[in-house]
Design brief:
13 helices, NAD(P)-bd_dom_sf, Rossmann fold, alpha/beta, Shikimate_DH_fam, Shikimate_DH-bd_N
């Protein structure tokens, strides 16, 4: 619930005693979102919180459409996905630390200024989803990861969320980064060195380096689930295999859940006796963090379990 407490530094709650029964709406803005699981998940979580609110998809990159929906008094919250995470974030009144440091917004919530005017605040709940997925799986993870290496696979926006989450909440000694392109890692290192002073990041460029380093306690993968083909992809996969082979086993969090949450990397980690968390669990925890900001209450655990089950059952596999 720390995300809720922190949100009130941006203003007062917009909710009243009758808000949960009011006809409020939340939206997801992005491209190619027709098969998004967000309506299903948020519908379940809204019911769990006792809110009779609705969640809608808006497939657009147009700023005017976003601002018009945002300004509606019936809008209670917004989710933002690619390719709008940077451009739409600039249209909001303020950004949380997480959004500023990561450089992308995936959630907007409403707070009121002293005069009662609505303020639209942008944040990033991807990092919270990673943290909560790990902590819910292993409540001791924050203490056991403290002072030991962690690892991130990938170099895009999700990798930045993972780096932020690991450094802020798990206090690793350093974070290894494996990625197909060194240039992306160079950008990440430059960005975080300025944004999070003191952060320790190490690029792993080859298998020999991976072999020589202590095993990470937590590995977060942010790459798509397809067979490696380019040289950089092949080396990245080999690095992961070498890490899995180490005597000391850790926890893999794979943020990918398409076309199946049981990715090649998850299967390889399981075979090597690593513990694993699938991307569907992270996705649900991201939605829970959004719900907390919008409804200002924690969805019941039964609702969270129902949400996880709804997207891991075989009938939904084709839409993951």
């Amino acid at each position: 619930m720390d995300v809720l407490q922190e949100s009130f530094q941006y203003g007062a709650s917009p909710l009243t005693s009758s808000s949960l029964s009011s006809p409020y709406n939340a939206y997801l803005f992005g491209s190619h979102i027709s098969k998004s699981l967000s309506p299903l998940l948020h519908g379940i979580l809204f019911r769990s919180s006792g809110a009779s609110w609705n969640f809608h998809l808006v497939q657009t990159t147009e700023k005017d459409k976003f601002q018009n929906k945002l300004a509606s008094l019936e809008t209670i919250g917004v989710s933002i996905t690619m390719p709008n995470k940077v451009t739409f974030g600039r249209l909001l009144d303020d950004l949380t630390e997480a959004a500023q440091v990561i450089g992308a917004v995936n959630t907007s919530f409403i707070r009121l200024d002293p005069s009662g005017k609505r303020r639209y605040i942008g944040t990033n709940t991807d990092c919270v989803g990673i943290r909560e997925a790990v902590v819910q799986y292993d409540p001791t993870a924050i203490s056991t990861a403290n002072g030991r290496p962690a690892m991130v696979i990938g170099g895009g926006g999700a990798a930045r969320s993972a780096i932020y989450a690991l450094w802020k909440w798990f206090s690793p000694s350093e974070i290894y980064i494996a990625n197909r392109l060194k240039s992306e890692v160079d950008d990440i290192v430059k960005h975080f060195t300025a944004a999070m002073p003191g952060i320790q990041l190490r690029y792993i460029s080859d298998v020999a380096t991976a072999q020589s380093l202590p095993a990470p306690t937590i590995m977060v993968s942010t790459i798509p689930d397809y067979p490696p083909s380019e040289p950089g992809e092949v080396i990245c996969w080999q690095i992961c295999e070498r890490v899995f082979e180490k005597a000391e086993k850790g926890l893999l969090v794979d943020m990918c859940y398409m076309p199946s949450p049981e990715t090649r990397l998850v299967k390889a980690a399981n075979k090597a006796e690593w513990k694993t968390i699938m991307g569907t669990e992270v996705l649900v925890r991201v939605c829970v963090a959004q719900q907390i900001l919008w409804t200002e209450r924690l969805p019941k655990e039964q609702g969270v379990s129902e949400a996880v089950a709804a997207i891991t059952q075989p009938k939904n596999a084709a839409n993951l």
